[in-house]
Design goal:
- The chain has one domain: TolB, C-terminal domain (Neuraminidase), CATH 2.120.10.30.
- The protein is globular.
- It has no helices and 27 strands.
- The N terminus is likely disordered.
- β8 and β9 form a beta hairpin.
- The strands form seven sheets. A four-stranded antiparallel beta sheet has the order 6-5-4-27, with no helix packed on it. Strands 7-8-9-10 form a four-stranded antiparallel beta sheet, with no helix packed on it.
- The chain has about 350 residues and is mainly beta.
Length: about 350
């Protein structure tokens, strides 16, 4: 059994109620008799200590009211996100116009989370637990035409769509180790991109489609790496002793925003792709995480607990002009901007 303390959760407590500022989520990967590998996620939204037990890895323990803005770019107006406002985690869509209520796209008894837009903005990939331990699903932007893309007995999740729309990268435990896989949407053909015996998670494509950023503990600390899509050119981007996770590319591919505890609190940072000039963007004592860079490069959306429960905010890439985008007693997290029409 593998135990991993992290922020991804399936907390069934009352929406909007968080069990303490430093509550820990538990990811348990176990092998039930005759049922293969299963992954159980408990999603408290904290950048908590990631404590990992892996046979091939080092076993050390790691440390652990604003008005709605309408000035969010010319055409970037929609955000998909995860919310438990109906008592269960579903994928929602909000249009950034005052008075428009978010639309529940999945509305299923199973947990649906981690939305990822197709590059043309017509489809959404997401993680769902409706058929078991976690699979990557596809649906239209209206919530219709739902399809299980990966359909495996092991955990598959955290999808990321390639800029050309042909391929989805995702995290999987099908090799009894967490790896980044690529799946051709048309053929279903898959390949293991990372092929390493330590955890590799949370892939995200570069805007030019040539590279993938991801999170790994292969050098005994959770850091952000970049790799070419043919598996060559592995580069470690962050080198801090703190936990660095959740990368998101800038529109021009020159920078990566990410979440980190390097200064002792859950905050959002940005760094050049060559690993230089790491810069802290948020300075609140509450949790800030799950950043998502807008397709036009002008805003970064993120999740924050600064008002007592998880809400979605946006800011400029230098941390200025903070805007609160959701206002619900429930928990709203994992924002993902809809791509701009071309």
């Amino acid at each position: 059994m593998l135990l991993l303390n992290t922020r991804f959760s399936n907390d069934k407590s009352t929406p909007g109620k968080t069990r303490g500022r430093r509550a820990r989520g538990l990811v348990e990967i176990a092998q039930p008799p005759k049922r293969g590998i299963s992954l159980h996620l408990k999603a408290t939204p904290y950048l908590a200590a990631l404590s990992l037990i892996l046979p091939a890895c080092d076993h050390q323990q790691l440390p652990s009211d604003i008005e709605l803005s309408q000035d969010l770019g010319t055409t970037v107006q929609d955000i998909a996100f995860t919310s438990d406002r109906n008592g269960n985690e579903d994928v929602y869509l909000m249009t950034l116009v005052p008075g428009n209520a978010p639309l529940n796209l999945t509305n299923h008894a199973g947990r649906d989370t981690d939305p990822a837009w197709s590059p043309d903005g017509t489809q959404i990939a997401f993680t769902s637990y409706r058929d078991g331990p976690g699979d990557v699903f596809l649906m239209d932007a209206s919530g219709e035409q739902v399809v299980n893309l990966t359909n495996h007995t092991a955990f598959d999740g955290f999808p990321a769509w390639s800029p050309d729309g042909s391929t989805i990268a995702f995290t999987t435990y099908r090799d009894l180790n967490s790896e980044i896989y690529l799946i051709d949407i048309a053929t279903g053909e898959m390949r293991n991109l990372t092929q390493h015996d330590c955890f590799d998670i949370l892939p995200v494509w570069s805007p030019d489609g040539a590279r993938i950023a991801f999170v790994s503990r292969r050098e005994h600390n959770w850091d952000i790496y970049v790799i070419n899509i043919d598996g060559t050119g592995l580069t470690r981007i962050t080198h801090d002793d703190g936990i660095d996770v959740e990368p998101t590319w800038s529109a021009d591919g020159s920078r990566i925003a990410f979440a980190s505890m390097r200064d002792g609190n859950d905050e959002i940072y940005v760094i050049n792709v060559d690993g230089t000039d790491p810069t802290r963007l948020t300075f609140d004592q509450a949790f800030d995480g799950f950043p998502a860079w807008s397709p036009d490069g002008t805003r970064i959306a993120f999740t924050s607990l600064r008002d007592g429960n998880e809400e979605i905010y946006a800011m400029n890439p230098d941390g200025s002009e903070l805007s609160r985008l959701t206002d619900s007693p429930a928990n709203d997290r994992f924002p993902r901007w809809r791509p701009r029409p071309h």
